[in-house]
Each structure stands twice: as structure tokens, then as C-alpha cells.
Amino acid sequence: VLTDPVIPCGQILAEHLSVPSVFFLRVMPCGLEFEATHCPSPPSYVPRIFTNLTDHMNFFQRVKNLIFDISNYFLCDFVFQPYAKLASEFLQRDVTVTDLLRQASIWLMRLDFVLDYPRPLMPNIIVIGGVNCAHKK
């Protein structure tokens, strides 16, 4: 199943049918893609999205990055809770969205390290390119 993990209904279906899933995405809110794939992403070194921080942070910027990361965790838990409930009811077992995302076979990510900071990626994450720009006449 080729699906977008931001709305995990496709992954719920793939899990129910026991078929492999392929995710195609640019970025996921709250960094769930790195948590689900076990990519190292410590908040003291990797700047979070919307913080306008660089990879060279002083102590207070690292604290700001950590606080932003903690608030994102609770926000994502609130946003994805209906999908976790739907998956638990449909699959007849307790499941979280992160557990669902861990079942993906391949992650096709549109990362561009010109815009994003380089970070380690797991073997099942394939970088397929970044921003696509077309010249207009």
C-alpha cells in the first residue's frame, strides 16, 4: 500500500490486510517519522522545525529546542489520538500511531539537505529528492 503517514488510515488497512506499506512524505508533524524509524534525533543537537535555530546552538537555544520538542509531543498525541482509537477498534488490539508507523517497509522521503539539516537515516528511508522547482514563462 502506497500511503501518506500523516493520515494513517492507509497504514491501518495495510496492517489489517498484512501487506507491506510504503510511505511517501515530505515531513511529518512532531518528528514522528524519526521516532517510528528509530533515527537518532536528540533535541539538544538537531534543531526542530519552526524554531529558526541552526545546528550551532548555545545552552539557552538548546533548552528552547527541548521545550519546543516536549510541547510538540503532547500536541501530536492529542492530534493523532483519534487515529489510535480507530486503529485499536478496527484491529481489535491496543495500538498507537507510532506502532503503526513502525510497520512500514519503506519510507520515501522528499528531504533536501539544502533546506533541512543533515541527519542520520535508517536503511529503510530512501531520500528521493527535495523541492521541485519549475521555470515559468
TrEMBL record:
Query: What is this protein's record name?
Result: UDP-glucuronosyltransferase 1-1
Q: Pfam families in the record, alphabetically?
A: UDPGT
For this UniProt record, the keywords arranged alphabetically read as follows: Glycosyltransferase, Membrane, Transferase, Transmembrane, Transmembrane helix
Principal subcellular localization: membrane
| Organism this protein belongs to | Leptosomus discolor
Coiled-coil zones: none
Q: Which GO terms describe its cellular component?
A: membrane
> Has the keyword Cell wall biogenesis/degradation been applied to this entry?
no
Q: Which family does it belong to?
A: Belongs to the UDP-glycosyltransferase family.
Topology versus the membrane? Single-pass membrane protein
Spell out the molecular function terms from Gene Ontology.
UDP-glycosyltransferase activity
- Compartments (UniProt record): Membrane
Record flagged with keyword Glycosyltransferase: yes
